[in-house]
Amino acid sequence: MIRELRIYSYFSLPTDLAAEMRDWPEFVRGDDYSTELRSLDTNESVTVSLKDEDEDRFVRIYSPAAGSLFDRVTGRTVYALSQHSDNLMIRHVSNVA
Q1: Neighbours of 47 (CB within 10 A)
Q2: Which of 86, 84, 45 is nearest to 68 (CA)?
Q3: CA distances (Å), 85 to each of 45, 67, 70, in order?
Q4: What is the CATH number of the domain that holds 13?
Q5: Is the predicted pLDDT of residue 97 greater than 80, yes or no?
Q6: Domain extent for 75
Q7: Burial level of 5, CB count in 10 A (0-12/13-18/19+)?
Q8: N or C: which terminal CB in the chain sees fewer CB atoms within 10 Å?
């Protein structure tokens, strides 16, 4: 089951999400808002990226399969972004391709 969340904010202060997860064993690569993680046990992969689409700017958390890594990445991302913003809006995206 594909999972995608979008986190909207005004992003006035940068947040290095890659640094937030760099010490995790699942960390593959990343820089600033872009992060790629993969579980060695389950092969679950999760990507985090900053997107600009149709005048919307958001952090996208995406995984082609449901799993605990997605949940952990979501928690860390929301917490890290909340340290630099007093306003986050999280949207679940269904029917993603």
Answers
A1: 18
A2: 45
A3: 27, 27, 22
A4: 3.30.310.200
A5: no
A6: 3-92
A7: buried
A8: C
